[in-house]
Amino acid sequence: MPSFVQAKEGQITILFTSDHHGQVEPVHESDASKPVGGVARRMALIEKIRQEVGEKNVILVDTGDLFRGTAFSEMTNGKVDCAAYQLMRYDAIGLGEQDFDYGRKTLTEYRKEFGLPWVSANVISAGQPFLRPYVLKSAGNLRVGLIGFSSQDALSVARRENVRGLIFNPPDGAAKGLHSIFKKDADIFVVLSRIGLEGDKKLAKNNSYLHVILGSREQAGLTLPIVNKFKDGTVAGPIIGQSGPRGLYLGRLDLSVEGHRDPKTKNATYSITDYKYQLIPITSDLPEDPQMVALLDSYRSKLKSEPLDEPLGEAVKAEMNDQGDSVWGQMAADEVRKASGADVALINSDFFHSDFHTGTITRAILYEMVPTDNEIVTVEIPGSALRKTLEVAASKKGQGAFLQVSGVKIQKTGDSLSIWVGDQPLKDHQKYQLALNDFLADGGDGYEQLRRFKYRKRTGVMVRPLLEQALKTRKTISSTDLQPRWIF
C-alpha cells in the first residue's frame, strides 16, 4: 500500500464531507472521546493534509445540504455556512434538497457572492441545466470530473415555490448521457450523490465508467467503502463511500491511478490500481484554524441582540402522550390560531425536527428543534374537507405527518371520527377559517387536498418567533399542560 506522503504521478487524495446542515460549531458531546466536528477543526485538518500530500494533489468536495439544522446557520440565513465553505476552498458541492430552503434567488446570489461551486447534472430549468453539471479539477497529472446528482425527493421535501419549474431527471439516465460528452474532458469521474445508498449502488452497477461515488443522506457514514474487484485485485467499477452528517468525520480517499488517453479520439481509459479509504474523526484534541475562528467570531458578533445562549424557558417532561398529542405541538398550534384569528389551526408534527428537549430551552435549542421556519397561511375550508383532512391525519398517527391541532377535538370510534370545532360538532356544509403553516398549505406531508382551496391568505407571520415569545411568556411548559385533543 503506498504511503501517499510524497506526491507521485497518478496519485490523488479526495477529502469529502456531506450533510453539513449548518453545523459550523462543534457538537457538544458528553463523551469527550467522540467526534465533535466544527468547521474550525475541520479546516485545520484539511490544511494539514494539503501540506502532507501537496495541495495540487488534493480535491475537497461535499455532497450537499449545507443549510438548516442550527440556530447559528438559520440566524445568518446560511451565510455563515457559505463563508466557511469558501474559506475551506471546496472544489465542488452537490446540490442537496435543503440547499433550496432560502429560495432559488438566494441560492443563485450565494453562488456569486461566495463563489461556491454547486453542481448538479440532473436538474433542468427551461430546458437547460439549472447549475453546472460538473466541474473539472486538475490533480497531479490527472483531470478529475466532479459530477453532481440531486435527489428527485427535492420535489416533495423542498417548498414547492422553491423548486417550481425545475425538472429532476433520473440520475441514472443523466449519467449515461454525460459519459459520451464527458469522456474527452476527464480522466477520473467522481460523483457527488444525493440519491441514498441504494441509489448509489444502482448508479454504480449501471455506469461502470464512474470511478468514485461519494454519497449522503444516511445517519452514519461508511466506515468501509463498498468496492468490487477483479481477480487481479484491481478495482471493478466505482468505489462507494460516505462520510456521515454534520461534519463529525472528514472522509479521505487516496487513489493510485493508471491509464492513458488515445491521441486520436482523445478518450481516456484510466483505472484505480490501489486505494486507501478512511473516515477521520474530528475530535476535541485537534487544533482550530485561527482564520476560521475569526470568521465565526465575526458572524457571531452580529447576533448580539439575539444571543444563541439566551434562556427562553424551561421544559419539564415535554414528550408526546400515547395519543400523539405533544405539548410543543399544541403550543405551536395554539399560537398559530391565536395569531391568525382562525377557527382551527393545524401543524405537522415533523415541523419539529429534533427530539423534544427537557430542561432550559435556549434560542439555540429552539432553532435546532425548529430549523425550518414557516409562514402562517389562512384558508377558508368547508367542514367536509376539514373532516377529510383529519381522517388522513388519524391514519398517520405515530408519523411525522400526524397533525397537532388547536380549536378542534377529535374522537375516533371504530373507523369513524367525531369532531368538535370549539364546543360545537363540525358541520360538513359550514365554512371554517383554517390556519396552518405554509408547508401544509402547499400540500406537504401528503395533504395534497389543502392546495386546492383558492380563498387563502399569506399572513406574513412566521411560526418560530411565536414559539419564542410563548416560551418567554409561559416560562415553563410541561406534559401536564397537555389537553386531550385526539382520542383514539
Mind describing the biggest β-sheet? Answer: 6 strands, mixed
Summed up, the helix count is: 14
**What is the C-alpha radius of gyration, as a whole number of Å?**
25 Å
Helix fraction by DSSP (H/I, runs of at least 4) = 25-40%
End-to-end gap: 62 Å
Q: Name the assembly state.
A: single chain
Mean pLDDT: 90
What structural class results from the helix and strand content? alpha/beta
Q: Please tell me what the overall shape is.
A: globular
The low-confidence runs, each spanning 5 or more residues with pLDDT under 50, are 1-8
Beta-strand content: 25-35%
> Main sheet: which strands, in order across?
4-3-2-1-13-14
Q: Give the beta-strand count.
A: 26
Describe this structure as you would to a colleague.
It contains 14 helices and 26 strands. By secondary structure, it is α/β, with parallel strands linked by helices. It has a six-stranded mixed beta sheet with strand order 4-3-2-1-13-14, covered by helices on one side. A five-stranded mixed beta sheet has the order 7-8-10-11-12, with helices on one face. Strands 19-16-23-18-24 form a five-stranded mixed beta sheet. Strand 5 (123-125) and strand 6 (128-129) form a beta hairpin. The longest helix is centred in the first third of the chain and has 15 residues, at 39-53. The termini are far apart.
